[in-house]
Amino acid sequence: MSAITADKKPKTNLNQRRQNRYGYAFIAPWLIGLFLFTLIPMLFSLFLSFCKWDIVTGLSSIQWIGTQNFTKIFNDGKFYKALEVTFKYCLISIPAYQIISLIVAMLLNMRIKFMHGIRLIFFLPSIIPTIASSMIWMQMLGKEGILNQGLALLGISGPSWLKTPQTALYGLIIMGVWGIGNTIIIYLSGLQGVGEELYEASAIDGANSFQRFFKITIPMISPTIFFNVVMAVIGSFQYFTQAFVMTEGGPLNSTLFYNLYLYTKAYKDLQMGYASALAWIMFVIILFFTLLVIRSSSFWVYYQNDDKI
């Protein structure tokens, strides 16, 4: 028996090593891409944040200037304006989109005829290319656009949303509702994972709709809410394309998002070192708020093995 066992062990180890090699071979393209297109550019960007470079004259023109870029940033009025616009957008859009997405997902979770087609209608806008949807919404948010026509039916005279400093940011926020299809689908999948027996038991105990929602639905889908909030925080701080296409930061810098300002410094003003410093500041901000949400999850995210309900 001992001889047979000894013969089996080398074969097992050989098979394990062979499987490991196959595994490394399959993930090699991803690892190569990670190093070439993520880690190396990040390290180069970190180096550039301490340098002066106009990106046009070649790598030989890079000049080391230490922390001058960061010192200049914290004395830059547009930097604070970009932070203000970005934070304002995040504070309004993140809770608004999550609430709207959850409400729509609950409606789409109803068992009625043609529901699959209705779900498809809500999801389709989220896969339309951002540039195309931005062009559509530029017309819809105009003085004679569909939004103002709808307000006119209520006796309200709407502004030219994207050309008025007081409303331009809110116009972009309204447009964002168009693209929440992905979030809706994720919430819908979370809702469908809640067991019907929980609602039936609560109904027997006399719980009303509000009690079932806050005591069963919200705790049971809290991991889904947690995921969507984390993704929303990361995505909102990186908001760029719609503002770049529709407003270019105007009017009067009312939509000067942080990433748009970063892009302007890098590719219009050709201050790549300054832009790299801006990028790393934003990286720290996103990391801080993401970790803050993750840290807070222990107080409000429920998993089935927990006893938080």
Describe the structure concisely.
This protein has helices spanning 2-48, 68-73, 77-108, 115-123, 130-140, 146-153, 168-176, 181-192, 196-204, 209-220, 222-237, 241-246, 258-268, 272-300, and strands spanning 51-52, 63-64. The chain has 309 residues and is mostly helical.
> Structural class, judged by helices and strands?
mainly alpha
Level of helix content? over 70%
Number of strands: 2
CATH architecture of the largest domain: Orthogonal Bundle
**Major beta sheet, strand line-up:** 1-2
Give the end-to-end Cα distance, rounded to a whole number of Å: 54 Å
Poorly predicted runs: none
Main sheet makeup: 2 strands, antiparallel
**Helix tally?**
14
Quickly name the level 1 CATH class of the largest domain. Mainly Alpha
Strand content: under 5%
What is the element string, with H for helices and E for strands?
HEEHHHHHHHHHHHHH
Rg from C-alpha positions?
26 Å
Count of spatially separate domains: 2
